[in-house]
Amino acid sequence: MLVMIALATCAANAQEPSLQVPRAYDVCSVKPSPANARSAARPATGGGINWIGASTESLVTAAFDVEDSQIFGLPAWAKEDRYDVACKDTERAVSKEEYWPRVRAGTQALLADRFRLQFHRGARPLPVATLTVGKGGLKVTPSTGSVRGGTYSPTFMKAQAWSMEELAGTLTSLTGQKVIDRTGVADRYDFELEWTLEEEREPGEARRPGGLVDLSVLSAVLNEKVGLVIKRTVESTEVIFVDHIEKPGEN
Questions:
Q1: What is the rounded distance in angstroms from the CA atom of residue 77 to the CA atom of residue 200?
Q2: pLDDT at 211
Q3: Are residues 70 and 50 in the same domain?
Q4: Cα 229 to Cα 139: distance, rounded to the nearest angstrom
Q5: Which residues, 6+ apart, have CB-to-CB distance to 87 below 8 Å?
Q6: Alpha-carbon radius of gyration of the chain
Q7: H or E stretch including 122?
Q8: Are residues 181 and 139 both part of a single domain?
Q9: In this predicted structure, what is the pLDDT of residue 114?
Q10: What are the mean pLDDT values of the chain's consecutive 10-residue runs (251 residues total)?
Q11: Which of 31, 48, 208, 212 is the most buried (most CB within 10 A)?
Q12: What is the C-alpha to C-alpha distance for residues 249 and 194, in angstroms, rounded to an integer?
C-alpha cells in the first residue's frame, strides 16, 4: 500500500457519502511506471494528485479507503503492474478538509473510466484491531495548539492535534492491519513516540515485510506513554468485491 502522511490515511471518514457519486478529475494521465519506481502519493495543486509507481490494487485501496485485505477479486496483474497517474482539476481548488475526500472520489471515477472497474460492496468477518483507553485512563492532556499535522515512520510517531480516528488510521498504515477507533474520545492530542523494530522479533525470526510494525509493539508503547491499548478481534468488515477490471489503455 502507498505510504502517506498520517492525516492522509485517516481523513474525514464522515465525508464518505460524497463518494457515492464520484466526481471525475478534469485531466488524468496513466502511464506505465519506469522499472523499480518507488511507490508514492504526492498532492498536486488544487485537488489534484500524482500517484507514482502505483499498483491498481493500491489505487483501489486509496479510492475506497480500505486495506488490501478488504478487496476481493483482483487479478494478479492488478497487484504487480505499476503506473504513474497524474490527475488535476484545472479550475477548482479545494480546502485542506476537502482534499482527501476529493482524491478518493476522483480516483474512483478514474478507475471506472480508465480501468473499467465494476464492483459491489459486501461484508466478511476479518481480523481487525480496536484502539481503546487502558484501565489507567489517558496519560496525555488535550492539545491546545491550533496547528494540526504530524508524521510517522516504522520507528517513530509525532502527533500534532491528532484525533483518535487519525491515530487509528496511522496505526493501520504502520501495521498493515485495520485498526478501529473505539476510544469514545473526542479531543485531539499531541505526543511523540519512539520504538525499535528489533523488539518485535523472536530469536531467528525474519523482519516483517516492508518495515511493518507488530501490533503488540505499538500497543505496549501506546499503553505506557499515552494510556491506550490495541486489542485484536474478528469483526464483520465492509469489503469490496471486484466484478470486472481491465488494464488501462495507453494515453
A1: 32
A2: 59
A3: yes
A4: 12
A5: 25, 27, 28, 29, 44, 48, 49, 50, 106, 107, 110
A6: 19
A7: strand 118-133
A8: yes
A9: 95
A10: 37 38 84 86 85 94 90 95 91 78 92 96 93 94 87 91 93 88 95 77 43 85 95 92 92 63
A11: 48
A12: 45
Question: Contact, 11 vs 101, CB < 8 A?
Answer: yes
Please indicate, yes or no, whether residues 145 and 198 belong to a single structural domain of this protein: yes
Q: Is residue 242 assigned to a domain?
A: no
Task: Note the residue count of the chain.
Answer: 251
β-pair partners for 194: 156
Alpha-carbon span 173 to 188, nearest angstrom: 19
**Sign of the C-alpha dihedral computed for residues 167, 181, 103 and 246 taken in this order:** positive
Asked whether residue 99 falls in the same domain as residue 52, the answer is yes
Whether 185 and 174 map to the same domain: the answer is yes
State how many domains the chain has. Answer: 2
Identity of the amino acid at 17: P
Judgement on whether residues 176 and 82 belong to the same structural domain of the protein:
no
Please count the helices (runs of H) and the strands (runs of E) in the chain: 6, 11
60: domain range?
6-122
Q: pLDDT at position 20, please?
A: 46
**153 within a domain of the structure (yes/no):** yes
- Report if residue 251 sits inside a domain: no
One domain, residues 11 and 113: yes
Q: Which residues touch 108 (CB under 8 Å, ≥6 apart)?
A: 19, 22, 63, 64
Residue 3: what pLDDT?
Answer: 36
12 located within any domain: yes
Residues 243, 188: Cα–Cα separation, whole Å: 40
For the chain, how are helix, strand and coil distributed in percent, rounded to 5?
30, 30, 35
